[in-house]
Amino acid sequence: MKVMVLLVCSILAVLQAPSISRAQELPAAPAARLKDLLAEAEQNNPRIRAARQQWKAAQQVPSQVSTLPDPEVMFNQLSVGSPRPFAGYTNSEMAEVGLGISQEIPYPGKLRLRGEIAGKEAEVWQERYESVRRGVLEQVKADYFELSYLAAKLGILQADQELLKPIEQSAEAHFRQGMGSEQDVLQAQLEQTRVLREITATQLQADTTQAKLKQLLNRDPSAADIETAPLTQSGVGHTYAELLKAAQSNNPDLAGAQRMVQRQKLQVDLAHKDFLPDFEVQYMWARPDPFQYRARYQLSVGVKIPIYRTRRQKHELAEAELEQESARSERESESQQVASELKQEYVTAEQTAKLLKIYKEGLLPQARAELQAGTASYAAAREDFQALLASFVDVLTLDEQYWQTLAEHETALASIEETTGLSLR
Question: In whole angstroms, what is the distance from residue 102 CA to residue 71 CA?
């Protein structure tokens, strides 16, 4: 009888407290705030740093390609009558020493276009950096939410492991009194083992997620584990149309695709310019014997004539136009992909929010009420052990499913934030 009272009191105690708060009873070190981890990842993650440096490197290119080629300085010495240097310099007007400078000058507009193309390329790298940054931060959020869910699940499993002890003791007492079967005792022991297995598997999963999160933060794998705050539900707060509009304005993948279209248009313009000639200007100063002859000055202008247009420039233009069409198709494909992924995450967020409401207002209260009634009936020998154990497993399963659904809801919001650039928390 004493065991029966212990069983009823233990189960009633846990049923009187909302199950969604049971996982928050785990003693832990101060929880790391998500925003602090995001700032740490943005500062230390190697992928973000690499993308940032690539963007900064691309910013150095426009000035290089839009500048005139380096001039060429020339020294000229002409000998007369002998291959010896300066032979005939004092007695022949043909012998001379000269200096000159030569400068290549592309057709007007080419340098400007090359600079603008490189500028668009730098903007593409900027959007790629932003895409990498958001992707890493989204993964940090996802791992953080998974750790929070796993901590909640561990709390539930450990609490329920304690609750199974009086249930097992009650089954043994019934068996000794001839009111139950040995199968009930074995079933209770089997459930204890199953919960222990779930605890071990959950801890292994938590360790794996810890390693992934530390890698994103660029922390040493042997560093102390990250403690997370309990999960709380956030709301979307926007319609799908509003989110799609934000994505079209703020999504870095879409922006990068648009920058690439603009770059390829400039590349087509440059290909047209390459049908026009470039120039070379050369200026020479020559000096024979200064006491007998006057200095000579020479200005030359050369023109690079694109005579192989059908084999070079024509194909260059065709390549640029095809790449422009390809960039437009990529932009359209990216737009469709962003809209599709956003829709999926929005539906996930909406449906999981509905499921959370069903768990809180329907399934969990009903399952707890059923377990409470079954406990009282079993104590009064009006219900068999299998029904009581099934009710217990239902509560355990629904508790776990609630926290898993909440983690999925928050992860979907993290994906929406990554796609739209909005902050939903």
Answer: 6
The number of folded domains in the chain is 1
Mean per-residue pLDDT for 269-292? 92
**Domain containing residue 251:** 2-420
End-to-end CA distance of the chain: 52
In a domain, 317, yes or no: yes
For position 30, which CATH number holds? 1.20.1600.10
Instruction: Annotate 247-258 with DSSP letters as a single string.
Output: HHHH-HHHHHHH
- Residue 48 and residue 342: Cα distance in Å, rounded? 23
1-31, pLDDT tens digit by residue? 444 444 445 554 444 444 554 444 444 456 7
Is residue 273 included in any domain, yes or no?
yes
Place of tokens 């794996």: 208
Collect contacts of 313-317 with beta carbons under 8 A, ≥24 apart: 313/271, 313/274, 313/275, 316/271, 316/274, 317/268, 317/271, 317/272, 317/274, 317/275
> What are 361-377's pLDDT values in tens digits?
888 888 887 777 766 66
Q: How far is CA 292 from CA 77, 89, 286, 382, in A?
A: 17, 10, 14, 134
Structure tokens at 302: 């050369």
Average pLDDT over the chain, rounded to an integer: 85
Contact 323, 266 (CB under 8 A): no
Taking only the tens place, the pLDDT of each residue in 204-227 is 999 999 999 999 999 999 899 999
pLDDT of residue 26: 43
Is 139 a member of any domain? Answer: yes
Determine, yes or no, domain membership for 425.
no
- The answer to whether the predicted template modeling score (pTM) of the entire model surpasses 0.70 is yes
